[in-house]
Amino acid sequence: MKQIKNNIKTTVVLSLLLLFALSSCDDFLDRPVEDNYNVDNFYQTEDQCYQAVNPIYNSPWYDMQRFFIQAGEVMAGNINLSGDYLNFTVTSSDQSLTLASASLWSVNAYCNGVIQNIDMKSSPSVSQEVKNTVKGEALVWKALAYFYLVRSFGAVPIIHDNSAMISAGNYNNVYKATIPNVYDYIIMTLNQAIEWLPEQNLSGRLDRYCAYALLSKVYLTKSGYGQTGSRNQEDLDNAANYAKIVIDQSGRKLLTNYEDIFRLHNNINEECLISWRWVSDPTWTSQNSLQSDLAVAGFDEFNDNWGDWTAPSVDLQDAFGENALSKTRNNRDTRRKATMMMYGDHYDYFWRDKGGFDWTNYVIGDLKAANLNGCGTNCVKHLVGDNADQVAEGGGNLLRMTNGLATHLLRLAEVYLIYAEAKIGNAASTSDPSALDAYNKVLLRAIPGETPRTSITWSDVWKERRLELATEGDRWYDYVRWSYYDSDGAINELRNQRRSTYSGLTEFYQGGSATPDPNTTYYDKTPPIPNPAAMYDSKLKSFVFPFPNTDVVSNPNLTKDPVEQDISQYKY
């Protein structure tokens, strides 16, 4: 992934240039061509206004992809990948962290530029409804970028208007706002998006209910900040109320089959509210590159897969009730096979031109092609397969490190779980019918025939979130919001996870016995216990990453205490 010099001025310029530097043949993500337009003669038609916001659905987010997995899943204990993220030793020079920060500020700058250009340069022939719609889309993406920023770095600057900041010449000496300030800014931004967005937008685009869904998640996260042992009831009520609007009014439903969510032909589906929408296109940064990081060697035709050692963890296997030290799978929870490949698994939707992908024959039977990692697992989500698979699902030809599989960031299933958790609130449990209905919809889709729950606790929802959203880049941020009000609980669970690996799996899988050798110690318990407390800032009351060196060099004020801000000064 490409290194981008990370300072606010450079990011602003790069982001604004994206408006006119990219092109694509995909209808939904059509972009203006540089030779045909400039900022002053663009925005003349409603179609051009939509095109202007299209790149925010992918390009500025591109350099976030690796951090999305390393922070969101490796650090959280769902994926085992040796290194600083697994061991809580990420430093300010880490490349994935540096790229992620540049990506998030680029999203913010791009969104600010679109909003400003719509207001200042759009033709009078463009309806106010369309102007509001595309500005509302930009605001949801802006809010999401800030949501990642505040949960990753804690207190961060509020960059409301890049052009004004450049004109004033103070883009490299702004102070951080407090964490509560940032949450208030995100909420203000989403409320404006809700006002501007229609209830139903063009296919695949953000609508009002997408903003409501994100707002419910923001309130649930914010509810614990600065609290001790419990959460703010007003925030919990807001989280429940906004989630309920999505549940009752959006008309959206869960897909029947869990694994269908992550197939390319379902890139646009009624369950997925916010997604990065990639395209398989030679234009760099518009594509999904996660398959290269997550798939076993030789998974596609381009020799661009190095994910043999990026493995769903032993601890995640435990959560699913699975065990790599077994040649039989229970497959009771349909999410397990859709999340992690294990011994005995066959996938019809991968390698369909070869009769399907058989993990056992490929990984165990042909060790020259792929390596067996110490967890005995490989990732499934974020994979599109080989060229025949992408073509069969309507995605055009696969290219090197390039596919068009959408990355889903917020799904209706999560909104159901947000609602259930918010209704439990600070109580020990709930039997509220609406909370049970939401929780059971997720549970029964995953485990057909399961007995519906008649009472649920916070621990029930906490586990269900892990299984439902495993390897979707979000689990670390669950620990962040837990740390807001119970840092000891979050730290202790992370410290006690099984983050080590097995030895001797190859011999066991290739041998004739159905059970492991009782005289062999397979699980390596010797590595040092990781220290998640190293990531906790007691002053900010949150897990935080260090600011990248390039950010601090650009703006030394990032090392200083945050400054309280009056959010009412900001207007859209």
Summarize the structure in short:
This protein is mainly alpha-helical and 572 residues long.
Explain how this protein is built.
The chain is mainly α and 572 residues long. The chain has helices at 8-21, 46-53, 65-74, 84-87, 95-121, 128-153, 162-168, 179-196, 208-222, 233-249, 290-294, 314-320, 334-339, 359-364, 387-392, 412-424, 433-446, 458-469, 475-485, 487-495, 505-510, 549-554, and strands at 79-80, 272-276, 311-312, 340-341, 346-347, 357-358, 378-379, 407-411, 429-430, 456-457, 536-537, 542-543. Strands 1-3 form a two-stranded antiparallel sheet. Strands 2-8 form a two-stranded antiparallel ribbon. Strands 4-7 form a two-stranded antiparallel sheet. β11 and β12 form a beta hairpin.
How many distinct helices? 22
Helix vs. strand class: mainly alpha
**Low-pLDDT windows of residues:** 1-28, 31-35
Q: How would you describe the shape?
A: globular
Fold blueprint:
Elements: H1 8-21, H2 46-53, H3 65-74, E1 79-80, H4 84-87, H5 95-121, H6 128-153, H7 162-168, H8 179-196, H9 208-222, H10 233-249, E2 272-276, H11 290-294, E3 311-312, H12 314-320, H13 334-339, E4 340-341, E5 346-347, E6 357-358, H14 359-364, E7 378-379, H15 387-392, E8 407-411, H16 412-424, E9 429-430, H17 433-446, E10 456-457, H18 458-469, H19 475-485, H20 487-495, H21 505-510, E11 536-537, E12 542-543, H22 549-554
Antiparallel strand pairs: 1-3, 2-8, 4-7, 5-6, 9-10, 11-12
Helix pairs in contact: 1-5, 2-6, 3-5, 5-6, 6-8, 6-9, 8-9, 9-10, 9-16, 10-16, 16-17, 16-18, 19-20
